[in-house]
Amino acid sequence: MSSSTRSTAISDDVESNYKALKALKNTEVTSFAWKDVTVTVKDNETKQPKLLLDGVDGVVRPGELVALMGPSGSGKTTLLNVLARRTAAANAKVDGDVLINGKTVSLQEFRRISSYVEQDDALIGSLTVQETISFAAQLSLSRRIPKSQKQQRVSDIIDSFGLRNQANTIIGTPVKKGISGGQKRRVSVASQLMSNPRVLFLDEPTSGLDSAASFEVISFLKKIARENNLLVIASIHQPSTTTFNLFDKLLLLSSGKTIYHGPVSDVNSYFSSIGFPVPGYTNPAEFIIDLVNTDFSEDAASSEKHKGSITEAWKASPMATVLANQLNETDDMDLGAHEDIARPGFFSQTLTLLNRLWIKSYRDVLAYGVRVAMYMGLAIMMGTVWLRLKEHQDYIQPFINAIFFGSAFMSFMAVAYVPAFLEDFHTFTKERSNGLYGATSFLLSNFLIGLPYLFLISTLFSVVTYFLANFRPTATAFFFYLMWLFLDLLAAESLVVLISVLLPNFVLSLAVTAFANGLWMSVGGFLVSDKILNVFWKYVFSYIDYQSYVFKGMMYNEFSERTYQCSAAAPPCFCSYDSPLADECKIPGTAVLQQYGFSQRDKRGQWIGILLGITLGLRLLAWVVLKTVRR
Ligand SMILES: Nc1ncnc2c1ncn2[C@@H]1O[C@H](COP(=O)(O)OP(=O)(O)OP(=O)(O)O)[C@@H](O)[C@H]1O
Fold this sequence. Notes:
Its main location: membrane. By secondary structure, the chain is an alpha/beta fold. The chain is built from 23 helices and eleven strands. It has helices spanning 3-24, 76-83, 107-113, 129-140, 147-160, 181-193, 211-228, 241-244, 267-273, 284-292, 300-316, 318-328, 346-363, 365-385, 396-412, 418-433, 439-469, 475-502, 506-523, 535-540, 546-559, 589-595, 604-627; strands at 32-42, 49-60, 65-69, 93-100, 114-117, 199-203, 231-235, 249-254, 257-263, 563-565, 586-588. The two termini are 54 Å apart. Adenosine-5'-triphosphate binds next to strand 2 and helix 2.
């Protein structure tokens, strides 16, 4: 490389590093304010309107870290939701304004410049810290930003959050320990910063952490807010004095009303001025929360009066007047367009999700490993129970039973997919709320990542059971058997996906999936033949029962071309099925099919089509649910 080319490359590098650092810096948002925020719900008991928030005002400037505090039930979460423009509370009516630079901005614009870190970390346990932040960058940043710049940004964030020594450590799964709770919180915040938010909301970022870890998390937040001029609002429960002092401002709520909103450094003087000085050697955060906490008071009327007087004192305070004036000062700076925070496109996001799921799939034994082992165990059990069945009429029923058991249990055991899917679903709901990607990318990547594993399971299961049970010994029949199992698993997993997005709760999803499988087994044509199944179950369920097509397909596979010996002790010959080959003391498999009401025509193409249709239909329904019910 010539010296001039080298120096151009170096200056490009310096330039891109500079851009990477600069992109984090907020220059567009000069203020974030909320005016007269009031939230009302209908009280379940009295059926009267109930105020959750009552005319709450506030303002945050660049570089400021704001603590949102108050006793339990004071409205912190509700306010944080309103500020982050999420659903405040179920069936709530929200009034008031949330302003960026003095203006109301569209929800799309708001999502672009803000991010919300939820209380529970939506991290994927099997990824390393570096991978987690790197995937967050790939999901957040446009493909137009060069890879080197993205890597630089990831590296900077890892350093800024003091995570360099843990960069290659996994987050942690139930079976493999990873980083500490405080480090997890830092990774969560760091990941959210990859989308370059200017305003960051955090719901109790220190929950579950001891005071040292809480201090550490808030210190990093303060540093990043200062360095990049970010506006940070975090709800927090009783911080230690040192942690409390890291915040620049405090908004203290009680029963949905403002008790104090101003600099943390003025807390002592303000409460002294209204007659409640913070005693020496006392944690001020603890003192002021106790001051307005009436939950454990024995004299409800007097404590309500006391709280009312503190609320009134705030309204009458000079600080409240200053705040009102600040809210009236409009700031007319435009947010402008930011190429660097444009999101990547659909294909790029789906590929990133696939890549992330792929790592999880082979690294996290709970994702697929356990299921592969479980299906292998089931295959060995089945193959050794139905061991080397013979071409004899005594073995016809065991053959049919083996077919039913294999197809039904394959589907039934898809319940084991529920926990893994729910974990992905929870990650998705959080990432979607932050505007990273949508339902289509999520469902598509989940579907695609399952294909090789479901194929592997079907292949291993077929190899073990097909030969042990001695199903029809031809290569074509073997591959058809494998195909039916694969289609069975595809449909069964699609059902799990639909049920889990409808009822995203572990126990409920598990119960409903198990119930649905019980239903499919009952109406699938084995336990009660189609010929005598009553019309309700037949017409309402049996046609959409994917297991029934798998059962038919496997029955056809076994019986369409094989013949079975009638009673061995001849003469006289006794055939247990009505057989056209009775003269030869044989039963054609087609006689068995006839008894089950199968037509003589080869309908495999139709059954395959229906199975694929059911799979597609279930996935589409899940997509509709995500687009409508679970928005
Ligand atoms: N949909 C609703 N209907 C009726 N009351 C509600 C509803 N949602 C929330 N609340 C009530 O509103 C009040 C404020 O709730 P919120 O969750 O905002 O409090 P919080 O300060 O975050 O509490 P915590 O610190 O315990 O999380 C509580 O008393 C809660 O019971």
